[in-house]
# Entry
Amino acid sequence: MSLKKERIYLSPPHMGGVELKLVQEAFASNWIAPLGPMVDAFEKEMCEYVCVPHATALSSGTAALHLAMLLLDIKAEVEVLCSTLTFSASANAITYVGARPAFIDCDRKTWNMDPELLEEELAACAAIGRNPGAVIVVDLYGQCADYRRIEEICRKYEVPLIEDSAEALGATCNGKKAGAFGKMAVFSFNGNKIITTSGGGMLISSDGEMIRKARFLATQARDPAPHYEHSHIGYNYRMSNILAAIGRGQLKVLDERVATRRRNCEYYKVALSELPGIEFMPIASYGSPNYWLTVILISPERFGMDREVVRLALEAENIESRPIWKPMHLQPVFRGCRARGGSVCEDLFKRGLCLPSGSQMTYNDLERVVGIIKSSCKAG
# Structure
C-alpha cells in the first residue's frame, strides 16, 4: 500500500523566524490580554509600511468592515455598493448595520470592480435622489482596483469609498501601497493571507478622528471614568498583544513573501503556457499585485476538461485548490439584492481555479501541481 503524498495547501501560514521571539517578549512583559505595546508597535509599523498615518488593530478584517459602516453612520435600509466577485465578509458587514448591499460586476482587464459600471450605477442612483451610503471596493486576489478612476467617480457623486484590501497587503497602485485609498481601508491577517496573526485585521485611514472613534467602539465603547461607563454600544474587537507580536514578525518578511509568490505565479505561467484553454488572471498596468493566489481560467472546449475535473484531480493527489469566489449576487443569502452587470464574474466563477500559492512551496511542489494539470488536459 503506497503512502499518501504530503498535502499541498492553497495558502498556508509561513512563519519568518522572529515571531516566536516577539511572542516571548510579550509573555515576559505579562501583556497577554487585548492591547499592549505590541499592538501599539504593530499599528505604527503598518502605518509606516502603507504610508497612511492612523490605524487600529482589530480581531478580524470583518470587524474592521463593520466599524467602517458604523463610522460612516450607514442607516438601516440604505444601499451600499459592493464588489460582487469577493468573499462574503465584504457584503456581510453591510447587513450588520441593517443596510442592503447592491453589487457591481468586475471588468475583464483586472477582475476588480468595473469603474464604468460603478459610474452608471451612481448616476442612476443620483437621478432618483437615492445615493448609496458608501462604496466598498475589493482588491481581488491581491490586485488593487483602478483607484485613480474609482476615487474620481466617488468624489463626483460625493459617496465615501472604503478599500477592502484584505487580500492585497503588499500590492501597489499608481505608486501607492494597497490600503492608501478611500476614506478608510481594511486589512485581514487571517491564517490564509500573505501574512497572518492567525486571526486579526486592521482599519487604516488618513482621518485620525475616525480611527480614534473606531478604537473607542472596538474597546467596548468605555467612556473615560474610574468605573465602567457606557454611552454608546461597543464591541469587543481589539487585537490581542500576543497576536500583534506575531503580526510584527510577519510584517518584517512581507516583501519576501510577495517575491516568493510572484515566483510561484511566474513558474505556473511558463509551465502551463503551452496548454490550450488556460488563461491567467491579468495584471493591471497601473500597479503590481502581491500575488497572494495564482488564479487560472480553464476553457473546457479547448482544454478538454472543465475546472471541476481539474480540481478533483488535484484533490485526488492531496493537493488543495479552490474555485474562485462565487459572486455575491448568486449567493442564496443575498437573493433579492440588486446587481449591475454580472456576466463577467459569472463566467470567471464558472472557469476559475485558484492554484496552491503558499510561500513555502518548493519547486517539487510546483511540479506536482503542474504535472496533474497537464495530465488532465484532453485537448484534441
